[in-house]
Amino acid sequence: MFLLPALLLLGFLVVYPIVYSVIRSLFDASGGTFVGADNYVGVFQGRDNLIAVRNTAIWVVVAPTVVTIAGLLFAVLTERVRWATAFKLVVFMPMAISFLASGVIFRMVYQQDPEQGVANAAMVAIHDTFAKDTSYPGAGTRGGGEQPVREEAGGVVTVGSFSAGQSALVPLVKVKPEYLPQDAEPAAPPPAAEPGRLSGTVWFDFTKGGGGRPNAVDGSESGLPGVKVEAVRGGEVVATATTNADGTFTMADVPDGTYTIRLPAGNFTEAYRGAEWLGGTLVTPAIIVSYLWVWSGFAMVLIAAGLAAIPRDALEAARVDGATEWQVFRRVTIPLLMPVLMVVVVTLTINVLKVFDLVYIIGGGDPKASVLALEMWTESFGGGNDQGAGSAIAVLLFVLVVPAMLFNIRRMRQERT
Predict the structure, then answer these.
(1) I want to staple 223 with a disulfide (CB 3.0 to 4.6 A). Which of 27, 69, 187, 402 is the partner?
(2) What tens digit of pLDDT does each residue of 369-406 get?
(3) CATH number at residue 56
């Protein structure tokens, strides 16, 4: 009698939905035609469904492991610092934020534009520190009529040939103002020709307000600094140079012979803008990183509690016997922590099978980021309008969770005995 109200509530909120979902999964979208196991077979058919199954497997294998390792490292390291409480507070703080808010935060972090996305801003800053490139996307030749240069294989080459002691003019147009470096100076004529040297000027052959002479260096036009220039003979690069702030360049020790001056295609590609976090192969790892940010505090707190319960005399005995700190950690601390670690791993495994919010917000509906929980919602309520297929995915998730749940129950019973 005392248990009856709780049993009724449990049956209404848990048992009835489970039974109804199983029954509904055996019918079609309308619910009027019995289709048997067709909905379950459909889960493993179709490109989007297979991607969701694959991503769910990645989540189950990677996310609990990475979060547990991170929590273990945090818990062990914070035992050795004075400000452990403050550190634990900072790491655990994301647990107080909803998955929806966390998804919005990390969607902004992963924005492609480095001026908006923190991740790409950091990557671009690091890249430019060690390998700063200057490029002019969209730039090219004037085209039409007799021109000194032409476009070829994505780059620009001179129509004529030059030898050591001569100078080359390489005019470019269609240079967007935002790509002109701040240190660009007015274009200058090529340096005086010298024996064994090949010089020239690469500049933006455009005068603001009109005027100017085509294919001639005018003082009001801008040089193009940072352009890579190659002297090519027979398809082989013999000498290279990089233009100065005024667009001039000089190649020293050029062997005798005639050469074509080439600006390789790399001068006209987009500058490094970071990684495409929200698309392609990186979207699932990126979402797992956000999951790590949220749940590492949970793992740290549980593991720290387990560390506090470890008998200190066992650790000291190992140290007295000559064990190093790594040996103490690997052979004493980890085995004693194993029950707690299993609790964390099993709990996170159950949790990642149900992950929805982060994938939905950060992935933005990209099928490459989909998981079974999101696919279940999409099939049932997100446009698929097929609650039969959605119920089949829900039952499949339930079946996948049951082994982890039974393992947890068995472990708890063993601990009590």
Answers:
(1) 187
(2) 899 999 999 888 887 788 999 999 999 999 988 888 88
(3) 1.10.3720.10
